[in-house]
Specification:
Distance between the termini: 60 Å
Shape: globular
Strand order of the largest sheet: 1-2-4-3-5-6-7-8
Strand content: 5-15%
Radius of gyration: 20 Å
Number of helices: 8
Order of helices and strands: HHEEEHEHEHEHHEEH
């Protein structure tokens, strides 16, 4: 006589199977992830590295798309970290690896930051502009996005304004929780706000001068998107206000969700890139 499993056992087996399935598929439902969770992610090693200047922080890491890299769309990625030396390119390596797995060639840019020799403003911006130009010399007509997170979003927006010659060959610029208004941002309380103020003080003597470093005061790339979490505690939704660009609100998302490949925000980012670069 064959003994059939109980309903409880069957139910438990189904739950277990779903859990295993989700574990292998990846749980893309995370929100409000802490920075530590980003640091704990694993990543593939880049396929190549290029120096675009003599400083130790003037380099680019490159991940080629898994198939047909010679025709794949490109993402030039600018990491954040409050423009500070303490936060380097490595914390966005998991995001770069995930972009590669999504089918893009990825060019992740390191740049001089405050606390390094020569890291005063506008060194970081000049570096990003130089890096973008360097990368464009290696492309063969493929579509390209420039995308940056937080302080990196600030740099991505400024480096691709309509007055910048290289902007003509860029399909889309995407600011992920980008800092767009240095005047209001430096007035707020917070560690990144203080870093922004310290950075501006290396070049300017008054807050009115900060507009020169504010994307909000510039003529931004004609196809610019701001993707912003509604529950971001580091860069608030107000940083998307009064700009002549397109905005995508990510409901419930926090600041670091936008660089965590297992978050709901990340799904939206990949969808946006596919729409803009793979029509």
């Amino acid at each position: 006589m064959i003994k059939l499993p109980s309903k409880l056992a069957v139910c438990g087996l189904v739950i277990f199977s779903l859990a295993v399935s989700n574990a292998f598929a990846g749980d893309n439902s995370l929100q409000q992830v802490p920075f530590q969770s980003v640091l704990e992610l694993s990543s593939d090693s880049p396929d190549n590295s290029y120096n675009y200047g003599p400083h130790s922080s003037q380099f680019i890491q490159y991940w080629n798309a898994p198939t047909q890299s010679d025709t794949a769309a490109n993402v030039i990625f600018i990491h954040g970290g409050c423009w500070l030396k303490e936060y380097d390119i490595t914390h966005t390596n998991p995001a770069s690896s995930a972009l590669r797995k999504a089918g893009f060639n990825v060019w992740s840019v390191e740049y001089r930051r405050l606390g390094e020799q020569g890291g005063e403003w506008p060194a970081s911006l000049n570096d990003v502009k130089t890096a973008i130009h360097f990368i464009q010399q290696k492309l063969n007509g493929q579509s390209v996005a420039v995308m940056g997170h937080s302080a990196g979003g600030h740099l991505a927006l400024l480096a691709t304004t309509r007055e910048t010659p290289s902007a003509e060959n860029i399909n889309v610029v995407i600011g992920l929780a980008a800092i767009t208004d240095m005047v209001s941002y430096t007035k707020a309380q917070g560690s990144c706000n203080r870093a922004a103020s310290n950075l501006m003080k290396t070049a300017y003597t008054s807050e009115d001068d900060y507009r020169a470093a504010s994307p909000k005061a510039q003529r931004l790339h004609s196809n610019t998107w701001l993707m912003q979490g509604t529950d971001d505690q580091i860069v608030p939704m107000s940083q998307t206000a009064d700009l002549d660009v397109k905005t995508e609100k990510l409901e419930g998302a926090g600041h670091f969700d936008l660089i965590h490949p297992n978050s709901t925000a990340w799904e939206a980012i990949i969808q946006r890139l596919n729409k803009e670069l793979k029509p």
